[in-house]
Amino acid sequence: MARTVPPAIFWLAFAVFVFALLAPVVPLYTDWLWFHEVGYAQVFLAILSLRGFLVIGVGLAVFVVLYANLAFAARTAPPDVLWELEDQLGLPSRVVIEPLIRRALPLVLLVISFVSGMRASADWETILAYRNQVAFGTVDPLFGRDLGFFVFSLPFWRLVHGWALTLGAATLILTLVLYVLQRSLVLTNRGPRLAQGARTHLLALVAALLVLKAVGFWLDRFELVFSPRGIVFGASYTDVHASLPVLGGLAVLALLSAAGCLVQIARPGLRVVAGAVIALGVAWVVGLGIYPALLQRFRVTPNELVAERPFIEYNVRMTRRAYDLDRVVEKDFPVAETLDARALERNAATVKNIRLWDYRPLLRTYAQLQEIRTYYKFVDVDNDRYLIDGEYRQLMLSPRELSYAHLPSRIWINEHLTYTHGYGAVVGPVNRISPEGLPEFFVKDIPPHSTAGFRAITRPEIYYGEVSNAYVFVRTRSQAPSLTPDALPAVTDPSGFTTPLSFARASSVASGRGCSSRSTTVAAPFFPGTETGTISPL
Q1: 131 and 153 Cβ atoms separated by less than 8 Å
Q2: Do both 208 and 247 map to the same domain?
Q3: Which of 77, 83, 224, 388 could form a disulfide with 195 if both were Cys (CB 3.0 to 4.6 A apart)?
Q4: What's the pLDDT tens digit per position in 213-227?
């Protein structure tokens, strides 16, 4: 009698299956909300379409390559029936294994292809950068190539080469395993026995891997511009005079080794292949390990400044050009000690905004006077400029952020329901002190109190900060009494796109993204604009 699956187990398996299908949709949906809110929906769609293309394209390529090689291996290398009798591995009979391989092979290859496509889709940024690259207009002094090649093209080709090399190695390993399972490769008392068709196939795959390795050696040459070997970043004397020519030679030697594999197909034994691979390995170790170390020790180190001088000059010149320092024009300003009252009057705005407070002691003073609650912290003090009563003033300010590390109890309810945001800020002039030697405040206390013509802060809640937590729930009954704001605005972005609050909350939490920073609240930064009267960020 056939056994039936209990309903509980069936529905549990079905729930797990549905969850596995929907799990990727949740972060996708919250990302869509974010990109749509900030007006970059087309960017999101471009990224999504490219990632989908990579999943399908790379997955299909992996499936075709693996299936073609494994199907070829299964059909073109029949073993000697007597070898199975001498097999020392004790594997099951071919009569048992081959039907299992035929049934399981497509499914296994589909899984491998899908995983490969998903992993490849994570590198969408490199591909987009390559497709939209622009020239820098400056060439590097070593290869004479535009710098855009090293920023956009080289990472792309390294990525493609890595994919191809991984696929080639996986194909070789899986093909070798298949030959062993179907007894085309057998370990006997007389030594290993390999069918002629299997031998030809494996030698061709090894040749392909060696060609890919030659391409890798050639690309490694361009990576020398990022070498940290010398006393300055970039190619050094040893890199240019040792590693660079050796990498070119290794590329040629790898191609010759690949040719040796193809020649070996028509000859018995493996002497040509073994000799070529051993020669490549020895050249690799000596050329990129021993020789550069000896050159650095005996040629560069005794007179390093002279040897590295051209490369130091390259580094300085390219650094100056990168920061536009090569376009700085030096001018002499003669000192004329003719300062008088009229000069001070002409520059009254500048004199009035000369900063006297140092931010480090000021930060400690703000903490002592205005943190007010133990879980509030001033992380930094910034300089900014605001119009106050029509006068442009330089001010020092610091937002009062919520520090989860200093909560009374770091339980989930406190971190995500009760204490959800910072509150207000302190603002003061850069050059004035009180009679007690303390800083003056234009904005202080909880709730924020503004003086000296500084506009009132109407929305002091801070959901975007330097020490914010991962996500919070707002508009709940668990808000701390001192933190309870007025009703928060609806979840609507500037373009009019409205999100159902409950679903947006669930999506944000499930995806690990902050509810307050993504979709469930649009709490505006807390400083009033000085010219338009609207909320504006720091």
Answers
A1: no
A2: yes
A3: 77
A4: 999 999 999 999 999
Q: How far apart (Å, rounded) are the C-alpha atoms in residues 378 and 444?
A: 13
Give yes or no for a cis peptide into 399 (omega within 30° of 0): no
Regarding whether 182 and 200 lie in a shared domain, the answer is no
Instruction: Name the token pair of 417.
Output: 């329901």
Q: What is the pTM of this model?
A: 0.69
**Which token pair is 486?**
């007025």
47 shares its domain with 186: yes
Q: Are residues 50 and 182 in the same domain?
A: yes
Q: How confident is the model at residue 514 (pLDDT cuts 50, 70, 90)?
A: very low
DSSP string, 213-227: HHHHHHHHHHGGGG-
| 202 plus 318 within the same structural domain | yes
pLDDT in tens, 20-38: 777 778 888 888 988 998 8
How many structural domains is the chain composed of?
4
Q: Give the separation between CA 492 and CA 278, rounded to whole angstroms.
A: 67
Same structural domain for residues 9 and 56? no
Q: Which of 416, 395, 398, 415 is nearest to 406 (CA)?
A: 415
Residues 214 and 183 in one domain: no
Residue 173 is encoded by which pair of tokens? 């390993």
Which structural domain, as residue segments, surrounds residue 1? 1-39+489-522
Would you report the helix, strand and coil content of the chain in percent, each value rounded to 5? Answer: 55, 10, 35
Quick one: CA torsion of 147, 149, 154, 155, rounded to 10 degrees? 70
